[in-house]
Design brief:
single chain; Arc Repressor Mutant, subunit A; Aspartate Aminotransferase, domain 2; 15 helices; 41% helix; globular
């Protein structure tokens, strides 16, 4: 039967993807049987308070994955194809994995809830509620955020040279709200915005929805320290005259790449020469497992006009939705006005709890454990990619973050293979969802942070068998002579 759909809002995951994931899991787990009819899109949309087009998009994705089939005038039905017959491909792999019994997801770029220090967090909440300032915290507050937290973050950033005396800070509901506000203030309809290509789709969609013209700058995937191509940026700046460029210099989502310091300096000089505003998204910067830190672009000389974004979502608790935006005081004032028009008042309780969690040293202790766990998961992912991916594959080797990018050899199509993998209870996100100006048919993102090393290795075993088998089949078809019709 169709599961009860639960929508998380706000969330980095689009609503249609949330609907898609929940129905997909119900099909793959057997809770929805082959031939079972799904509710009409209008009916399901009304029951969960979403737009009909959102449900239509979720159904289209399910049909693309081969999980449902839509019939005009009749509706949509579960169309789960048979699972891969692992016994038939033993010859292609000496140690084929058994068919998985539970979903293994490489799809979600988020921390593992297994790592959450719940007892310490409960204690922190009690301390905030029991404090003498509890009544003020629960009162209305400024749209710019809880003042003690604003001071705390600014002091930390200034100590690292990542904020100057002319900078101010705005607390946001995660980085996604910061991007939305930046779009409204700096990139309204008709403005040109340069994004990394591939890029996290939430960044792309927020500017596109606002009517901005979006251009992708290719990301170099070689090595751990690579990132956006400087030469391509220069050509784009010279030809397109963009208003701003959005970069994730540390452990970019989806590729995991890091821009080297010399390239950061070159990009900064280019932006200054062409009058382009830099938005530096440092969402993953606190998750370095190996190597040396690289100075933030905001820390470069005379970088007061660089806008820096950060968040507690990846190093603490995504559900609290606390991020920040740092930039020149005049800009933060404009951003605060835009925020006040939409939500008027920030959630001070979440901000006060996070401040207490940080000031007591609990955040630092939690981060230390996350870094150790993240390093172990990243090693497992890289080692499994080395072992399992087919000949001709390329993949990034990040030094931190939560994501790794794979480029499969031609003619493999990641979206088609995702449907195959889903039938074996393993999910990943195909590259086409991250594309900006260039197709990413052969690419895919693997998110490793939320899984145990055992599940990472097991999941990549499954993917490896699927990828190698399909690659061998494709090569065989290429070698076979085409029959001549006479």
């Amino acid at each position: 039967m169709v599961p009860e759909i639960h929508i998380v809002s706000p969330s980095e995951v689009p609503y249609y993807r949330q609907v898609y994931e929940q129905i997909r899991v119900a099909i793959l787990s057997g809770r929805m049987a082959r031939g079972e009819r799904l509710p009409p899109t209008r009916e399901l949309a009304g029951s969960i308070g979403l737009n009909r087009t959102t449900i239509t998009a979720a159904y289209e994705l399910l049909e693309n994955d081969g999980l449902i089939k839509s019939h005009v005038g009749r509706g949509s039905f579960v169309e789960w194809a048979n699972r891969v017959d692992w016994e038939s491909i033993i010859a292609a792999d000496e140690n084929p994995p058994a068919a998985p019994s539970a979903l293994i997801s490489f799809s979600a770029s988020r921390p593992s809830e297994m790592q959450f220090p719940l007892e310490e967090f409960r204690a922190t909440c009690r301390e905030v509620i029991d404090s003498k300032d509890a009544a003020n915290i629960l009162q209305l507050g400024p749209a710019s955020g809880y003042e003690p937290l604003r001071r705390f973050i600014l002091e930390q950033l200034r100590s690292r040279g990542e904020a100057g005396e002319n900078d101010d800070i705005l607390i946001t509901s995660g980085c996604q709200q910061a991007f939305d506000l930046i779009q409204r203030v700096l990139a309204p309809r008709g403005e040109t915005v340069v994004l990394e290509d591939p890029v996290y789709p939430g960044v792309r969609s927020v500017f596109q929805r606002g009517g901005a013209r979006v251009i992708g700058a290719p990301v170099t995937l070689r090595g751990a320290r690579s990132g956006v191509e400087v030469d391509s940026l220069e050509r784009i700046f010279e030809k397109e005259h963009p208003r701003l460029v959005v970069l994730t210099p540390n452990f970019q989502n989806p590729t995991g790449t890091t821009i080297p310091e010399d390239a950061r300096k070159q990009i900064f000089e280019l932006a200054r020469r062409f009058g382009v505003i830099i938005v530096e998204d440092d969402l993953y910067g606190g998750l370095r497992y190996f190597g040396e830190d690289v100075r933030a672009m905001k820390a470069l000389d005379e970088a007061d006009d660089v806008i820096l974004l950060g968040s507690f979502s990846k190093i603490a608790f995504p559900g609290l939705r606390v991020g920040w935006c740092v930039g020149p005081k005049h800009f933060i004032a404009r951003l605060s006005e835009a925020k006040e028009a939409s939500d008027l008042h920030s959630d001070q309780l979440s901000q006060a709890v996070l401040l207490r969690f940080a000031e007591t040293g609990r955040l630092a202790a939690h981060r230390k454990k996350m870094l150790a766990a993240g390093a172990e998961r990243l090693r497992a992912c890289i080692q499994s990619c080395e072992k399992e991916l087919p000949e001709g594959s390329e993949f990034t080797r990040p030094e931190g973050g939560m994501n790794l990018w794979v480029r499969l050899p031609e003619p493999l199509d990641a979206a088609e293979l995702a449907a195959r993998a889903a039938r074996e209870n393993v999910s990943f996100t195909p590259g086409k969802y991250f594309a900006v100006s260039r197709p990413q048919a052969h690419g895919l993102r693997l998110c490793f942070a939320a899984m145990t090393p055992e599940n990472i290795r097991y999941g990549l075993q499954v993917l490896g068998v699927i990828f190698r088998t399909e690659f061998a089949r494709a090569r065989k078809q290429r070698r076979e002579p085409v029959p001549v019709l006479v």
